[in-house]
């Protein structure tokens, strides 16, 4: 009951040991990422567009301009795929063939619903704002009626979902371990730099604290 | 002649000033990224899968297991979309509405060709290996006949291509600048950690040098 049920479209077939349907694992990946890649088709041509998102319980919210092609297309309830990928390391083996990447990814499939209800729309926008900086929503000016009208919000229920994770060192062929080649993992992580204000912040206002935005307790491996 | 020609499928319609078709700008983004997201449809269901890639001139190479669904599908010449996204900053405005992200992305559209020629296949695999660590190909054991057979390589010509870039501070509504709210950019960048060998590296072999993998000369802004 704490797993998503794999379907023919989300069951991991290649290297199934890397697959996971565990809700906690899926949610941890979704909550750590900043952006997702949304896939949808227009006239049989697939498009993949990066955008921000947020998870609220078992729902993924997307938002964008009401006049964007992506939002307009998705609001019609077409099939879509949303993927979130975290790159954790470069896996360098002794053979070219066994080079790999350490990563955690989530693939979500379904069709989205246009959020019309004003309360749910505000809740979604709060989720998206707080996904980037927790607590930010309560500090900023909220959307007014015109801004709300210019913004479309879409909801995708998390139902057909799978995660795929690779971690750990490279695995070389036995015979290759005698080669004088460095092999191991170069960790890759996402780092936040020093905040740069826009030059018009009022004097008494403190800078944003990076600790609020920090995503994970342990470094990438 | 140093630009890709925008088509109805790649012309940036939303916020066209963020669009670019300049080859140098496109190539710089592609050469900096580690992974791309590949979009394709199976029975009208879009899928978005993260994978490694490399650019060689005006060709993008992908590779994977010869038995993977993605490679098998793409090898049939179906329409696909490959997107590379670099996240550069969190753009925090005084209003929720004007929050944004700084990013550089490239969207590539077309259909891929299965690379059968052995020399081109080896060239593609070298490109992919060296895309992660320049010069790595000449240090490692090259693919043998069985490994080559187990690996499919696809080539996408760079033809329908666009880049989209946002940079700089948030832009708030005039009236909001009097609000006591911090606004600016939190830079986001990809950092490499200390390499961790796999415990079986021969004693005389030096560790991999991170400077070889470094991607950009200037920090993200």
- Give the N-to-C terminal Cα separation of chain A: 30 Å
* H/E element order of chain A: EHEEEHEEEHHEEEE
State Rg of chain A.
20 Å
CATH architecture of chain A: Roll
Describe what you observe in this structure.
2 copies of one chain form a homodimer. Chain A is of the alpha+beta class and 221 residues long. Chain A has a single domain, classed as Pnp Oxidase, Chain A (Roll), CATH 2.30.110. In chain A, strands 1, 2, 3, 4, 5, 6, 7, 8, 9 and 10 form a 10-stranded antiparallel beta sheet that branches. In chain A, a hairpin with a 2-residue loop joins strand 3 and strand 4. The longest helix of chain A has 15 residues. The model of chain A has no long low-confidence stretch (mean pLDDT 94). Strand 10 of chain A pairs antiparallel with strand 10 of chain B, so a sheet runs across the interface.
């Amino acid at each position: 009951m704490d797993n998503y049920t794999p379907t023919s479209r989300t069951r991991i077939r290649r290297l199934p040991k890397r697959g996971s349907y565990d809700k906690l694992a899926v949610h941890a990946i979704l909550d750590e990422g900043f952006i997702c890649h949304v896939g949808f088709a227009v006239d049989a041509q697939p498009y993949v567009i990066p955008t921000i998102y947020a998870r609220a319980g078992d729902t993924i919210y997307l938002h964008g301009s009401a006049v964007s092609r992506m939002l307009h297309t998705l609001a019609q309830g077409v099939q879509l795929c949303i993927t979130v990928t975290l790159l954790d390391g470069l896996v360098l083996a002794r053979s070219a063939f066994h080079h790999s990447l350490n990563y955690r990814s989530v693939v979500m499939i379904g069709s989205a619903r246009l959020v019309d209800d004003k309360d749910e729309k505000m809740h979604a926008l709060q989720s998206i704002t707080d996904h980037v900086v927790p607590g930010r929503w309560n500090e900023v000016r909220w959307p007014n009626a015109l801004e709300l009208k210019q913004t479309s919000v879409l909801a995708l229920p998390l139902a057909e979902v799978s995660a795929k994770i690779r971690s750990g060192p490279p695995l070389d062929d036995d015979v290759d371990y005698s080669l004088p080649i460095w092999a191991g993992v170069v960790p890759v992580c996402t780092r936040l730099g020093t905040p740069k204000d826009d030059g018009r912040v009022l004097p008494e206002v403190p800078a944003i604290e990076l600790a609020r935005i920090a995503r994970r307790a342990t470094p990438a491996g």
